[in-house]
What we know:
B: alpha/beta; 7-stranded mixed beta sheet
Amino acid sequence: MxxxxxxxxxxxxxxxxxxxxxxxxxxxxxxVGAPECGDVMKLQIKINPETQVIEDAKFxxxxxxxxxxxxxxxxEWVKGRTLDEALxxxxxxxxxxxxxxxxxxxxxxxxxxxxxxxxxxxxxxQGDETASEEATATA
Amino acid sequence: xxLKLPIYMDNHATTPCDPRVFEAMxxxxxxxxxxxxxxxxxxxWEGEEAVENSRKQVADLIGASSKEIVFTSGATESDNLAxxxxxxMYYEKGDHIITVVTEHKAVLDTCKKLEKRGFKVTYLxxxxxxxxxxxxxxxxxxxxxxxxxxxxxxxxIGVIQPIAEIGKICRERGVLFHxxxxxxxxxxxxxxxxxxxxxxxxxxxxxxxxxxxxGLYVRRRNPRVMLVPMMDGGGHExxxxxxxxxxxxxxxxxxxxxxxxxxxxxxxQRIFSLREKLRTGIMxxxxxxxxxxxxxxxxxxNLNVSFAYVEGESLLMGINDIxxxxxxxxxxxxxxxxxxxxxxxxxxELAHSSIRFxxxxxxxxxxxxxxxxxxxxxxxxxxxxxxxxxxxxxxxxLSKVHWAGE
Lengths: 139, 406
C-alpha cells in the first residue's frame, strides 16, 4: 500500500506526542477505539477556562500509519481553537488533508471521535466541578 | 560487504529466481521453443526431452517416479486439481472430505465450493501451537470419507504438521491423502512413500524457480489415484491436465528441484541459524514479543512474531527498507486479521501486531543484523507512541478496560 507524503511525514515526525495530566480539571481526555480492532487513540486537550481556547493537545496512538497521522493532525488542528470551533472539525477534512484511501477512512472517523470524546470529558469534569461547588455552597 | 537496500525477507510469499535456474531456462525462450507434444520433428522432441528431464528432477526430490508428476500452473491449480479431481472421481464412494482451518485459501475455498455442490467437509481445528492432532484425523474419518487434505508447512507460521502420522492413518483406513506441500518441498525432507502421501502440491516460485509453474504428485501404485481433470483439451499430462506444456517454466522447476536436492541439508542449517539469530536478537532486546506457532516443528526460515502494543502495519512502515508481511488486518483488503493466527487462539490485538519474516537462500548475516537493529528501534519508537504501552506501564490491565470501540 502506498502512503501519501503527508501520512509519511506525520508518521516519521508525529506532532504533539505525549500525555497531559488526566487528573487536571482543565484537561480533557478522549480514549477511543479498541485493541482488537487494531486502533486505539488517546487524545488530550488542555483548555483555558477563561477563553475556552484549547492551549495544548497531545496524543498517543496504537494503529496503522494512517491512524497515527490522523491523530497527529487532529492535535495540530485543535490547538488554538475554541471548544466550539474544535467540534466543527470533520473527518472528511482529515481524509482530504492526508489523502487517505477509502480503506483508511475509519482512521479519520476515529480521530474525529477522539476530539469529541476529549471535549466531552472536559465538559463533564467542568459540570462535575460546578456541581460540587454548588454542593459546597449549599452546605 | 556493503548492504543493499531494501532487504527481501518475505520468502514465503515468493523467492527470487536462482541465477542457475534462470540460466537453465534461458535457451528455452528462443532457441529451443518446440511444443513438447509435437511428435514428428526434432523441435518437439527437444521440448519433450527437456520436460521429461525436469519430471525426473522433480520426482527425485520427493522420492516419486517420473510418471507420477503432473505439471500445472502452480500450487493453487494443483490444490484445486487434487481436491476437485478426487471429489469428482470418487463421489460414488463417499462425499466426505477432511481438512484443517489453517490451510491455504486454495484448499479452503476449493472445499467450500465442493460444499455448495453437496459434499460434506470437516474443518479440523489446531492447538495453540498451530498443530493438529493425528487422533483428530482418525476420529473424523467415516466410511464416507474419500480425502484428507492437510498442508505440510503453513505459509504464515511455518508450522510443520505431523504428515507421516496422518499419512499412516489414511493408509490404514483406505482414505486418499493430499498434502499442500508448497512451503515444505525443497525446504525440508519430503518423501512420498515415507509419508504415505497420495497427492502433493508444489510450486516453483517458492523454491527459487519461476512463477506460473508447479506440479502435482499423483500416486500411481498402492493405491493408484485417479483424477477427473479440470482442464479439458489435448489430453496432456496423462489426461489429467490439458494444455500446451510451459516448457521453459518446467525446465526452471526441474532445475530448482535439482538444486534443492543437492543443497537442502546444508542450506537448512544456514537459514536456521540466521532465523535463530534474528529471533534471539529481537527477543533478547525487546520485551513482550511472542512467537506465533510451535518453534520446534517449524520451517527453518520462518519467524512469525507478535509485538504487543504495536500495530503491525505501522511497524512495517517503520522498517520500510525490509520486505516482510503482517497478519494485521490493515495489510489486507478484508480488514480482518489473519485467520491462521485466530485459529491458534492468538488474540485479535496480538494478531494485529504480528510480523512474518521469511528467510531464504539469499539472505545474509549482515542483513539479519541490520533487520534486528531496525525492528528493535521501530518497536521502541512505536511503543513510546502507543497508549496501550503507556497504560500497561501504569499497571492497567488492558483486558479489564471497557473500550469505546468495542
